[in-house]
Amino acid sequence: MNPISRREMLRTASCGFGYLALAGLASAASPAPSPDLKPRAPKIPARAKRVIFLCMSGGPAQMDTFHYRPQVMDKPHPGSIVNFAQHGQSGLWVSELLPNLARHADKLCVLNAMYSDTSNHAQSFLQLHTGDRLRPCPSMGSWVSYGLGTENQNLPGFVCLNPWMPTVYSSACLPSLFEGTPIGVNGEDMTKATIRDIEGDHLPLDLKRSQFSLIQSMNREYSNIHSDDARLEGVIQTMELGFRMQTAAPDLLDLKGESQATLDRYGVGKRFDTGRSKPSDFGRQCLLARRFAEAGVRFIELDHRDWDQHENHLRDLRANCASIDAPIAALLDDLQQSGLLEDTLVVWGGEFGRPGMTPGQKESAGSGHNNRAFTFWIAGGGVKGGYTHGVTNHTGTDGLEGKVHFHDLHATLLHLLGLDHERLSVVQGGRDIRLTSSQGGKVVHEIIA
Amino acid sequence: MDLPRVKPRNHAAPRVSQLPRAAARPAPTDMSPAAKISSSRCLASRPRSRWTIAAPFVCSLLSAADLLSADISPDQRTFFENKIRPVLVRECYECHAEGAKKVGGKLKLDTHSDMMTGGESGPAMQPGKPASSLIIQALQYDGVEMPPKKRLPDHVVQDFITWVKMGAPDPREDRPKGNSPDATFQKKSDLWSLRPIGDPQPERSTARPDWARDPIDHFVLAKIEAAKLSPEPDAEPKALLRRMSYDLTGLPISASQAEQFEGEYRTEGQQAVARWADRLLSTPQFGERWGRYWLDVARYAESNGDDGLGRNPNFPHAWRYRDYVIDAFNRDMPYDRFIREQIAGDLLPADSAAETDRHLVATGFLALAAKPAVAMNNNFAADVVADQIGLIGSGILGISVGCARCHDHKHDPISLRDYTALAGIFKSTETLWGAAGMEPLSAPPTPLHELQKASLTSVPPESELAQPAAPFKKRPNKGKFNYPPGAPLAMGARDARDISDSRVLIGGDSAKLGELVPRGFLSLFPSRSLDATQCPPQSGRMELADWLVEEARPLTVRVIVNRIWLHLFGDGLVRTPDDFGVFGDSPEHGELLDHLATRFLKEGWSIKKLIRSIVLTRTYQLASSQSEAAQKADPENRLLTHHSRRRLDAESLRDTMLVLSGQINLEHPHGSLLQHQNVLVNEMGNLHRPNDYRSVYQLMLRSAMPPELTAFNLPDALTVKGKRETSTLPTQTLYLLNNSFVLSQASHFAERLLAEATDEPTLVRSAYRIAFARNPSPNELTKALEFVTEAEAKLATANPGPATPRHRAWAAFCQSLLASNELRYLD
Questions:
Q1: A248 in contact with B, Cβ within 8 Å
Q2: A270 min Cα distance to partner chain B (Å)
Q3: Residues of B numbered 137-176 whose beta carbons fall under 8 angstroms of chain A's beta carbons: which are they?
Q4: Which residues does chain B have within 8 Å of residue A146's beta carbon, measured at their own beta carbons?
Q5: Residues β-bridged to residue B636
Q6: Which of A400, B69, B455, B760 lies 20 to 30 A from B580 at CA?
Q7: First-to-last C-alpha distance (Å) of chain A
Q8: How far apart are CA B377 and CA B386, in angstroms?
Q9: DSSP for B486-550?
Q10: How far apart are CA B89 and CA B72, in angstroms?
C-alpha cells in the first residue's frame, strides 16, 4: 500500500507538453482508472462504446408517445388520447405523432415501467443525471468518461448540447477534467451555439504552444507550492484539454460541409414555436450529436426542454413531437448506415412521465407529473430492438412488472459500456460515491440482446 | 493497493472500490468526526451503518420515511412490496389507516412515520428490535392480539420480524398534509432554523489557551479539537492582505502595499490588520463588492429575459436599484432598514425628497422579475406575485415558498394558505416595470416611480443609440405612460388601488378560485395583524417588512449572517444559503451561527461590523494549507481547520485584469448603457460596449450577459443565487487564451511595462510584481526571458500587425500571467 506521491506523479506528468502522463502510473496491482482522458479498456465485456442521451426535460407524456394505453373499461379512463399503430417486424406500438421514428420501431427497446423517487422536477432531474436527488454528485456523462476515458484527445469526453443547468454536466467530486462541456445555452438560438473563443489568430500556432507551455509551467509551480490542493492539478488538466480543443472543435461545429439534403433530413433550422414548445433547433443538436459521436466523444447529451405539459397537453405535445421526430429518425438512420449504432447507445427519456389524459377533456387541459411509471427507450449497442419491457396497469399510472428505477437504468447502461456500477466509485469523506448511489441498482438483463 | 494519489476536486482520492458493498461502508467505529457529530442529531433508531453514509448531508428533520424511501435497496423494496405491504393493506388498514371509519387506538400504519409516531400505546415498532416492537408483539398475540379475529400464519409473522430486523425499510411516502396550518407541519419546532436565536457560550480550549482572539475562534477551536485535529498556522501577511483586499473590495493588492503591510504586521500584529481592514471597509469599492452579492440574491438584471415568446424587453431604469444597493452597503445601512426599504420603501416616512427618492428606488427589488409573456397567459399577475413571494422566501427567509403556490409544500412547513395570505399582500401591490420594450404582448406597460431630486439621465443623440441588428417593425410609444426624455424614473412597487385579500388559486391557476384567505404571513412564526383602520387601506407590505425583521427574525438573521460568512470563507456554515428548510443543509456549527446572529443584532444589524469582527478572527486569518489528517477526516472543511482556497469570481477576475493593465476606471459611471431606450434585447444584436468600468457596472441583460464575464459562472439572474457555482471548464481556458478582452488587457499591460523600463530582466520583475505582488524566482525569470526572446523572433517574421514584434511578444508574456492559476486563485 504505497501510494505514489503526488510530486512523483507530477514529475512524470510534466515531462512533455500536451501529454498527460498519468495513464501509466496506476501500478499493475491496481486496476484503478487513472484520471485522464486516454481511452481505457472496459472492465467487463462491453457492448457499446458511447452514449447519446436525448434528454427530454419536463417529463414527456409517455402514453401519447411510446406507451400505448387504450381505453379498456366502460367509462373513459386516463390513457392514450392519440392514435397508435404497430410498426416494423416487431409490431412495436408507436404514436401517430412520431411517424418518422416509427420507421425505427425495430431498433427501439422500450422500457414502460420506469420509476423514480420523486415527482419534483428538480430532484428527479438531478436523480436522472447523478443517481442522487439531494446533493451534487457526478453526472452520468462524467462517470462514463471517468470510467472509459475518451477516444479523441482533442475533445472533451463529455459534451452537452443546449444544457438546461450545470447539474447536467457537473463532475462534482470527480476531477474537473470529466466535467461536461456545454455548447449553447438552453433557451437561446442553437444556430449561434458554438464554443466561445474557440479560435484566435493573434499569435502563430507554434508560439501559442510555447505560450501555453509557459502558462502551464507557472501553474505547475503554483500547485507544487500548494501540493495539498488536488483541484489545482485538475485545473491544469482541464486547461490542457481547452488548449487542444482549439484544433478539433471549430471544424466539428461548422455544418458548412453537410449537404442540403442532410440538413433537410435533420430539419436543421426548423423552429417550432407553440405554447410551451420553444424553438430549439433540435435538428441541429441531433446533427451535431452525430458529428461528435463520429469524432470519438464518449458521452453526448442533448436537451429538449419543453415536455412539461401542464396545460394544452395535446397542442404542445404535437409540437414537441414534430420537433424531435425527423431529427432523431435521421440520427438513427445515419448511425445505422455508418455502423456506429452497433456500439452507440441512444437513450431517450426525461425526469419522469405524466399521467394519461382522459378522452373528452377540453382542449386546453394539461397533465401533471407521474414518477411511478414512465417510459424510456434505448436503441443500439447491445439492447434488444423492437422490444417492450415492463407492464403497467390499464391506466398506465403504476408499473406492475419489469419495473426499472433510474438506478437500474444507470447500472444497465454502465454494464453495456463494460463498467460495473458497484466498482465505479470514488471515496469522498469516507463515503463511497457511485452513480447508482448507496441504494445500488440492478442490471436489467432482460433487455440485453 | 497502489493508487495514484491524484485527488479530485473535493479532496477525496478517487479509486475503484475493491471492496464488496457492505464492507465498503464505514463501520461505526470509522465514522468521520462530521458523521459522528451529525448522528447525535439523527433518529437513534436508524441502523448505524446507514447513518454514517447519509448523516453529513441529511438534515435532522427528515422523517424516518423520508430516509427510508431514499435509502431502501431494490431487494428491500421487493421484500416490502411482496411480503409486508399486502398484509398491512389486507389485515390492518381497515382500522389503522388514514380514512378509517374509526382509527383504533389512534394508531395508523399506512405510513412509516405514522408507525414511528404510534398511537395510544406508543410507537408501533422499534426498527432493528423485533422483540420490543409493539406490532410484532401484537402479531404474536403477546399481550395485545392483532388482528383481533384470527392470528396470522407463522410465516407471515416471521416476515414481519425479518422486516423489523432489517430496520423496517419502507418505500411508502408520507401522505400529503391537510390544509390547516397546524396539520401542515406538526413538527415545525424540530426544524433547527426556526428555533429562537440562542446566545451560546463557547467552550474554552485548555490545550491552546492563547489561540483564540474572539469568541468565534473558541467555537471553531472546540470543534477542531473535539475531532482531534489541529488548526493550520496563520496565513502569511501577504496572503492575508490579498485575501482581505479581494474579500472586502474585490480588487488585487500591489507589491508595495504587500511590503508595507508585511512591515506593519511584523511590528504591530493585529492592530495593523484592523487598520487595513478599516481602510478597505471605508472605500467605495466595498459597496461594489458586497452590493454585487446582494444583486445575486435580488436576481438583478437590466432586462426581462426571454418572456417565453422570444422577446426580451430591457429595463432602462434598473440600474438605479443597483446603485441603491451599492450605496446601502457603503453607508452600512442596518440590514433591517435595508429590508424595510426594499419591501415597503414607498410606504415609509421620509425627511427629504432625496430620501423619498431612495425609498422608491429600493422597491425595485420587487420589480426586477423575469416575467413570462402576458399574451395568452391568464396567470401573468399571479406569476409576478409568485416571483415576489419566491424572492422573499429564498432571498430573505431562506425557505422556498414557491411550491406552495399550487399545493402545500411537500417538505417544508409552508401551506397553500400561507402562500395565499402572502399573495394577497402582493396582489394589493402594483408592480412598476415600465414600458417592457414597448411590447404590450410581453408585459402590459406600467407607470414608473417619478423621482424628485435624482439627476436626469443624459440622453445621447439618436446616432449614438444602440441600433437593432435587423430592421424590425417600429413600435411607436403610444402607451399611457409617457415621460419626457431623460426624466428620472425608477422601477418599483406601490400599493394598488384595490386592496383586497386573495383567494386560493387551485393548482396555481388564476381561473380556479378557492377560499378567500386574509392577507397575512407564514404560519412558521407568530403572525401580526394588519391594521384594518388604515385609511386608505394598505397592502400590508409595511407589516410584512416588520414581520420579517421581528417575528421571522430567527430565519432572517440566520440567513444573512450565513451569507456574510459564505463570502468570507467560500462556503456558508449552512451550505445551502438559500434553503434553511428540511432539505437544506443543517449547520455543523449551529452554535457559532447563533453567536454570529446574536452579535449581529447587538451591533444594530450592521453588516460592516460583522464583517470586520470576522476578518479579525484567527479563524479567518488561517493559512489555506491543509493537513493530511484534516483532508481525510474533514474533506469539506466543515470544521474550519484552515481557510479554503477559492477561485476569483467573474467580476474580480475581470477587474483584476483591468487593474494589472492599468486601464481600470474606478469611477462610478452614471447610469447604464441602455438607460435611455426601451428596446427588445433580442432584436438588438450585441449591446455590450467595451469599457473600463468595474464589472458590477456592466450591462446585465438576462439571456445576453456580458461576454467578458460569462465564462466564470455568472448567475442567470432568474432566481435567488446565494452561492455561485465554480465549475472548471475547458471553455475557460479558451477565454483566457483567445478572448478579445483578455488580449486587449495583455497588450495594455505590456505597454505599461515598456513605458517604465527597457532592460528585459527589469521588465519581467516589474510584470511579476504587478501581477502577483512578488518578485520572480531565478527559474521563472529565465523561463520568461526565453519565452520573450522566442516570441520576438517569431513575431518578427509572422504577419505584421500594427504593434511592434517587441510589444506583441511582451503582450503574449503578460497574457500568460493573466491566464495563470496564481492570479485566479485566492489563498
A1: no
A2: 15
A3: none
A4: 14
A5: none
A6: B69
A7: 41
A8: 14
A9: T--EE-EEEE-S----EEEEGGG-TTSEEEEE-S---TTS------TT-SS---SHHHHHHHHHT
A10: 20
**Does the predicted TM-score (pTM) go above 0.80?**
no
Cell of B718: 432568474
Average pLDDT over residues B336-343: 98
Cell match 417529463: residue?
Answer: A59
As a three-state string, the secondary structure of chain A is CCCECHHHHHHHHCCCCCCCCCHHHCCCCCCCCCCCCCCCCCCCCCCCCEEEEEEECCCCCHHHCCCCCCCCCCCCCCECCCCEEEECCCCEEEECCCHHHHCCHHHEEEEEEEECCCCCHHHHHHHHHHCCCCCCCCCHHHHHHHHHCCCCCCCCCEEEECCCCHHHHCCCCCCHHHCCEEECCCCCCHHHCCCCCCCCCCCCHHHHHHHHHHHHHHHHHHHHHCCCCHHHHHHHHHHHHHHHHHHHHHHHHCHHHCCHHHHHHHCCCCCCCECCECCCCHHHHHHHHHHHHHCCCCEEEEEECCCCCCCCHHHHHHHHHHHHHHHHHHHHHHHHHHCHHHHEEEEEECCCECCCECCCCCCCCCCCCECCCEEEEEEECCECCCEEECEECCCCCCEEECCEEHHHHHHHHHHHCCCCCCCCEEEECCEEEECCCCCCCCCCHHHEC
Rounded to 10 deg, the angle between the B590-602 and B607-615 helix axes is: 130
- The three cell numbers of residue B198 are 440562542
- Decide if A412 contacts A447 (C-beta within 8 A): yes
B interface test, pick of A7, A133, A215, A409 with most B CB neighbours within 10 Å:
A215
- Which is more confidently placed, B127 or B194? B194
CA-to-CA distance for B814 and A202, rounded, in angstroms? 14
ipTM of predicted assembly, 2 dp: 0.77
Cα–Cα dist A151/A38, whole Å: 7
Please tell me which of A208-212, B29-33, B667-671, B712-716 the model is most confident about, judged by mean pLDDT: A208-212
C-alpha B92/C-alpha A320 separation (Å) is: 46
At B429-468, the pLDDT tens digits run 999 999 888 888 889 999 999 999 876 666 666 666 666 6
Distance CA B583, CA B591 (A): 20
- pLDDT category at A426 given cuts 50, 70, 90 is confident
Q: Identify any residues that bridge with A108 across adjacent strands, giving them in sequence order.
A: A379
Verify whether the Cβ–Cβ distance B9 to A234 is below 8 Å: yes
| Interface A-B: count of C-beta contacts within 8 A | 289
B1, B2, B6, best to mutate vs chain A, most A CBs in 10 Å: B6
Pairing of strands A108-115, A387-389: parallel
What does the longest C-alpha to C-alpha distance in chain B come to?
Answer: 102
Question: Which chain A residues are Cβ-neighbours of B819 within 8 angstroms?
Answer: 215
> Do the chains contact at A175 and B783, CB–CB below 8 Å?
no
Of B66, B55, B4, residue with least CA distance to B582: B66
Kindly list the distances between the CA atom of residue A418 and the CA atoms of A48, A411, A439, B79, in Å, as whole numbers in the listed order. 8, 10, 21, 29
Identify from B1, B7, B378, B512 which residue to disrupt to test chain A contact, counting A C-beta atoms within 10 A and taking the largest count: B7
The helix-helix angle for A230-253 and B730-738 (nearest 10°) equals: 70
Look at A117 and B69 and tell me if their CB atoms are within 8 Å: yes
Residues in Cβ contact with A166 at an 8 Å cutoff, skipping those fewer than 6 apart: B725, B727
Phi/psi at A353 (nearest 5 deg)? -120, -155
**Side chain identity at B473, as an amino acid letter?**
K
Closest residue in A to B783 (Cα) is A214
* Close Cβ partners of B42 (under 8 Å, ≥ 6 residues apart): B51, B55, B58, B60
Cis bond before residue B518 (omega within 30° of 0): no
Indicate the residue of B8, B50, B732 with minimum beta-carbon distance to A242: B732
